[in-house]
Structures are given as structure tokens and as C-alpha cells.
Amino acid sequence: MKITIAPEILENYPGTHIGWLYACVVVEEKNDYVEALKKNLPRIVQEHGLFKTEELSKHPRIANWRKIYSEMGVKPSSYRCSLEALLRRVIKGENIWNISSVVDCYNCVSVMTLLPMGAYDVHKLKGDLTLRYGKEGEIFLPLGSGEEITVKDTHIVYADEEKICCWLWNHRDSRLCAVTTDTKEALFFVDAAQESDAPDVEKALDLLSCHLEAIGCKVKAKGIINKATPQALHV
């Protein structure tokens, strides 16, 4: 499987750096180690200087993602990047996500590093995976919903050779390739859309590796694709 950033994405967002990580995973409904990570998130978010949801849009990273979402033709206050959605929940003190050990783990690392993350079940992917613009008429099937979303050519998506895997870059995953308790191999992604965030992508991959290994997963390969190296062969 090849992992690629389409030329059109790099033309419009030349600072894009996508970290990827392949791991054999053990997915549990709940894990004590991950629950401990969750408890530390409010403190970590405050250390980032984020105390109120109203302040999120002023943070440079969130502001940049909001700009990108506007350029995709959607209202960023209604369609948020995954990172902003997670931060809002932590700041509000709401019941922090409880999906599965692996998904909860990478969501924690996303908050810790202030970089959006996602993951797919490798055995549910078909062919190569590409970050690209949508094609008119494509349909996206969102996780946790029975609805169908019609994709526009201004929308940035992760897609394999037969389906949209994530809509609006990192807004929402597809129910067709989501990580579940049956998943044995997963492919994780770390998103950075501007050059200034690039140094943190490698750190995020290392941190994700550490926490995944701590819950029984085995990291097999990882790397970064960008303008200089827009394609990687997933091993």
C-alpha cells in the first residue's frame, strides 16, 4: 500500500506534513493505562494556555485549521477539525471519550501534542491511500451515523481506491474503515498543515508509539510524507 499526498494539496498547502504509523494492535473496550492518560488531559490543556472554549479559535494551530476549513467551503464553527473537537470536550469538563483503548489513546496523544490524529483498520482499506480533494458525486458514510454525505471538489479527504476514509481532512472518519475491537492492524495518521508545525509531527509519532506499546500494541513502521517526499510505501 502506498500513502500519498496529492500534488494539488501540496500546491495549496506546501507546509503539509503527514506522519504515519503502522502497528499490530490489541483493542480493548477499556484500559487502565489509557484511563490514567485521560485524567491528565485537563492539566495538559491548561499548560498549553487553553482555559476557555472561546479562546480556542485564537490559538495559532486551531486558527489555521479553521482557515483551511473555510477554504474547503464549510463553516468552521460548525465543522471542526478533530483536535478542536477534542479540546472543547476537555475544557468543558465533559465525559472524555470512551470509544476503545486504541482510539482513546491516540485521541489523548492528539490533545497532548495539539495535532489532529486518526486511524484506520488496515484490513478494511482497499489499495493505496491518498490525501486529496474530493470528486463531485462521491459519497461519504460517516462513523456513528446512518446518513450519507455528498462530497464536493473543495473538500479534502483521505481516500483509498474505493471509498472516502475521512471527510474534511480530519473532521470525521468513515464507518467503513474504523478501528474496532476486532481490529488487528491499524494505520495511524498525524496531520500538520503548516511548516511551523512540522517539527512536532515526529515527536507526536514517537509519543504515540510509546503509548501504544504501553497498551500491548506493536509498532512495525512509521514515517513522514511531505512536499519533499510525498509518498511512502506502508510496510
From TrEMBL:
Residue ranges constituting the B3/B4 tRNA-binding domain according to the UniProt record: 63-217
GO molecular function annotations of the record: phenylalanine-tRNA ligase activity; RNA binding
One Pfam family linked to the record: B3_4
Recorded superkingdom: Bacteria
UniProt signal peptide: none
SUPFAM superfamilies reported in the protein's UniProt record: PheT/TilS domain
Matches recorded under InterPro entries: B3/B4_tRNA-bd, Phe-tRNA_synthase-like_B3/B4
PANTHER family: CYTOPLASMIC PROTEIN (PTHR39209:SF2), PTHR39209
Record's protein name: B3/B4 tRNA-binding domain-containing protein
